[in-house]
Amino acid sequence: MNGLENPHLNDSKYSLLVSAIPLFAEKGLEGATVKDIAEAAGVNVALISYHFGGKEGLYRSVFEFIGKERLTAAERVLQTPTSQEDLRKKIRLFIEEFFLCYLQNPDVMKIIHRDFDGAHPQALEAFKGVVLEMFMRVKKFLAVAQEQKLIRKELDLDVCVSLMLAGISQCTRMDFLRKEILGVTLSNPEYLTHFVGQFVGVLCDGICAQ
User: Looking at residue 3, what is its pLDDT?
Assistant: First the structure.
């Protein structure tokens, strides 16, 4: 199973969503057929039109489904920090959960990196709202921390959030190269713990000696 949750969707709709992900990852929107997707989900092909209005609608729904799950996780983790220690703990958990999502759902990340980076119209339309919501949620979290004087008041939060989210995304994208060149990977639990700790340390403390 892929680790994606199904809190509200009916069985056939959910089955189509999760079955479409590996096919879209392997073949892309154009290459994956409604017949292939329906067979993988074990449902009648007509249900794709019924639930999503066609293959393009299913494709958009995959992005929305993925994005909303990440937003729900962010809302749960990024609650108001009570101290610098709590701030670091919440940032660490946010980053760690993102990496774990990548490890549990490599096909999801493959679709995002290929189609979103390539400005695929359907991907961009479906995902840009989610990206903006995630950006604003993290910014709100840091703004509260800034008001509480847990982080420096002169920091540009737009820049901070951009660097944080871009860093997380790029770290997942380059994991295959990290494994090839350095012989380490985020799929190793011990290395993941070390990597996240270093990431949070650089993010919160910088690299200059105090």
Answer: 46
* Domain locations in the chain as residue ranges: 62-205
b/e string for 160-186 if b means 16 or more Cβ within 10 A?
A: bbeebeeebbebbeebeeeeeeeeeeb
- Average pLDDT of every residue of the chain: 87
What DSSP string runs through 16-55? HHHHHHHHHHHHHHHHS-HHHHHHHHTS-THHHHHHHSSH
- At residue 107, the pLDDT reads 86
The pTM score is 0.81
Per CATH, the number for 62-205 is 1.10.357.10
Q: Indicate the DSSP class of residue 209.
A: -
Residues 136, 66 contacting (CB under 8 angstroms): no
Distances from the Cα of 187 to the Cαs of 2, 84, 95, 96, in angstroms? 15, 29, 14, 12
**How far is the C-alpha of 70 from the C-alpha of 88, rounded, in Å?**
19
Q: What is the pLDDT of residue 210?
A: 57
What CA–CA distance (Å, rounded) separates 106 from 24? 12
Q: Give per-residue pLDDT as tens, 106-138.
A: 888 788 777 766 556 766 676 677 788 889 999
